């Protein structure tokens, strides 16, 4: 295993985090808040460690998917551990476990919070919470690839390990250019939302933090009522952008280069919008008697559906009080998620399409045993490897989900709370139902349960396997074997120097 390259990547990740921490520092200066000192201190720690870890460049800078998964998982753990330090240092979230939960929830774009009074936080803390969504939405390693290109196949292995969806490919021949295009689209959409919200009458600070949360499909709000207190036209702007950030970014690439037929021909994107329209129509009809009119029902339904299917987690209504049929729709949307290649979480629409088409294919084989058919997406046959990976992903998801619900059950909370708490974290959504509804938080869970939910958040954001591979015995055997080999080589070099 190329541990030197993993160490080198982690060092660069810490350097990037140090630079990103300067934004809350500047916010603290503007609002004259003393808490900014702790963000500066954390940035200094990150830059020193990052410099030490990248001081010696690896001789071999090529590595494969295995190393890519390990580097990705460790990068997100490092980001979260160091990213939570300002909360602990400033005592705004004095418990390390709670601070880590909040930070992992931010970077994984989950939006599940332990805070009971979010408005008591300083402006720099509120900005950092929302900014972690924006960082985690597209992925810090995608950003790293855009500025520190790797050699050989390392680029695609890093991108595959971090990007959401069944498969990742190049938009253009060079992976560096693909990463830059993705971040360019991401930044452009974020900036457009900020401008529209400001033009709509929202204060600058609120516009920036809201756009960070929307772009990353995270959902940390800066108000106690999430988004319910804002004007209806602002709610519609956020609804539209939540849905836009749930679209596969390949579609935006095609539109950007005037390949409209490819963009609008993407089967996953079409299915995504059909699901949204059908869900909004059903819930609007179902909750119309609870609202002041049809438009109010449509507004609430569209916002909540957009928030849940894209796994953003903003809320304008306490849907825990909605009819059971509407709640059932929202729970199903939690698992559905957005498109592959978007900033949204969940199982992904493409996987559900592949799984559904696989079932149909199997049924046809029972009826016509001699027929030979292939599962297709966008008119093209899907490789067996992709179908197999989809099936394995779904089975692994079910196992982790079941184990997590069982682990939480020892605390004695009701099944709806435990079930939706796990669903909300592993699908990176935020709010669930019952005790973890949109008007509640996750602070009542024990520290052990919080670590279970933190694992679920990281596993969900990293598509399960990059995190699970850290627990594989082979990885640790190779790691220790590599370390032993390095020690032997160091001893031999010392012997040679003594002989001279």
Describe this structure in words.
The protein has helices spanning about 5-20, 20-30, 35-55, 65-85, 85-90, 95-105, 125-140, 140-145, 155-160, 175-200, 205-215, 230-245, 250-255, 260-265, 265-285, 295-310, 325-335, 350-365, 385-410, 415-425, 445-460, 465-470, 475-500; strands spanning about 375, 380. A two-stranded antiparallel ribbon has the order 1-2. The model is unreliable at about 170-175 (pLDDT under 50). About 65% of the residues lie in helices and about 0% in strands. It contains 23 helices and two strands. The protein has about 500 residues and is mainly alpha-helical. The longest helix has 27 residues, at about 475-500. InterPro entries: Cat_transpt, TrkH. It comes from Butyricicoccus intestinisimiae. It is a multi-pass membrane protein.
Q: What's a quick, concise take on this entry?
A:
The protein has 500 residues and is mainly alpha-helical. The chain has 23 helices and two strands.
Which key terms come to mind for this protein?
mainly alpha; single chain; two-stranded antiparallel sheet; 23 helices; 500 residues; 1% strand
Query: What would you call the structural class?
Result: mainly alpha
Element-by-element helix/strand order: HHHHHHHHHHHHHHHHHHEEHHHHH
Provide mean pLDDT, rounded: 87
Radius of gyration: 23 Å
Helix content: 55-70%
Widest sheet: strand ordering = 1-2
**How many helix segments?**
23
Low-confidence stretches: 168-173
| Cα distance spanning the termini | 32 Å
Shape: globular
**Number of E-type strands:** 2
**Quick one: biggest sheet?**
2 strands, antiparallel
Strand content: under 5%
Family: Belongs to the TrkH potassium transport family.
Membrane topology: Multi-pass membrane protein
Organism: Butyricicoccus intestinisimiae
Subcellular location: Cell inner membrane
């Amino acid at each position: 295993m190329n541990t030197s390259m993993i160490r080198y990547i982690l060092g660069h990740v810490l350097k990037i985090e140090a630079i990103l921490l300067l934004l809350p520092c500047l916010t603290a200066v503007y609002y004259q808040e003393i808490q900014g000192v702790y963000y500066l201190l954390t940035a200094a720690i990150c830059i020193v460690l990052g410099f030490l870890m990248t001081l010696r460049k690896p001789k071999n800078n090529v590595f494969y998917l295995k190393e890519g998964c390990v580097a990705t998982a460790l990068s997100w753990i490092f980001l979260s551990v160091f990213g939570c330090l300002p909360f602990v240092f400033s005592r705004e979230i004095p418990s390390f476990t709670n601070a880590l939960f909040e930070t992992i929830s931010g970077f994984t774009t989950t939006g599940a919070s332990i805070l009971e009074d979010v408005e008591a936080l300083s402006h720099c803390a509120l900005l950092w919470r929302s900014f972690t969504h924006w960082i985690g939405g597209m992925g810090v390693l995608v950003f790293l690839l855009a500025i520190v290109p790797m050699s050989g196949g390392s680029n695609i292995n890093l991108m595959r390990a971090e990007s959401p969806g069944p498969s990742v490919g190049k938009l253009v021949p060079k992976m560096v250019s693909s990463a830059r295009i993705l971040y360019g689209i991401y930044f452009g959409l974020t900036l457009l939302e900020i401008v529209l919200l400001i033009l709509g009458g929202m204060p600058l600070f609120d516009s920036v933090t809201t756009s960070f949360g929307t772009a990353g499909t995270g959902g940390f709000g800066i108000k106690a009522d999430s988004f319910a207190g804002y004007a209806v036209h602002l709610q519609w702007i956020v609804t539209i952008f939540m849905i836009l950030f749930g679209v596969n970014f390949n579609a935006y690439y095609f539109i950007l280069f005037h390949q409209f037929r490819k963009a609008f021909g993407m089967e996953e994107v079409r299915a995504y919008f059909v699901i949204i329209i059908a869900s909004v129509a059903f819930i609007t009809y179902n909750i119309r008697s609870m609202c002041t009119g049809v438009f109010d029902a449509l507004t609430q339904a569209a916002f909540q559906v957009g928030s849940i299917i894209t796994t953003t987690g903003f809320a304008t209504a306490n849907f825990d009080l909605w009819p059971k049929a509407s709640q059932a729709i929202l729970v199903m949307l939690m698992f559905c998620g957005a498109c592959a290649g978007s900033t949204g979480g969940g199982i992904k629409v493409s996987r559900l399409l592949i799984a559904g088409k696989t079932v149909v294919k199997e049924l046809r084989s029972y009826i016509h045993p001699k027929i030979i058919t292939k599962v297709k997406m966008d008119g093209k046959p899907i490789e067996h490897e992709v179908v197999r990976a989809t099936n394995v992903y779904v089975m692994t998801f079910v196992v982790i989900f079941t184990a997590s619900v069982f682990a939480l059950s020892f605390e004695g909370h009701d099944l709806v709370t435990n079930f939706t708490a796990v669903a909300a974290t592993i699908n990176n959504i935020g709010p669930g139902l019952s005790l973890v509804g949109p008007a509640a938080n996750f602070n009542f869970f024990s520290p052990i349960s919080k670590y279970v939910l933190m694992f679920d958040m990281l596993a969900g954001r990293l598509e399960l396997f990059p995190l699970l591979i850290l627990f594989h015995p082979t990885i640790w055997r190779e790691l220790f074997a590599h370390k032993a080999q390095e020690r032997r080589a160091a001893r031999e070099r010392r012997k040679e120097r003594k002989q001279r």
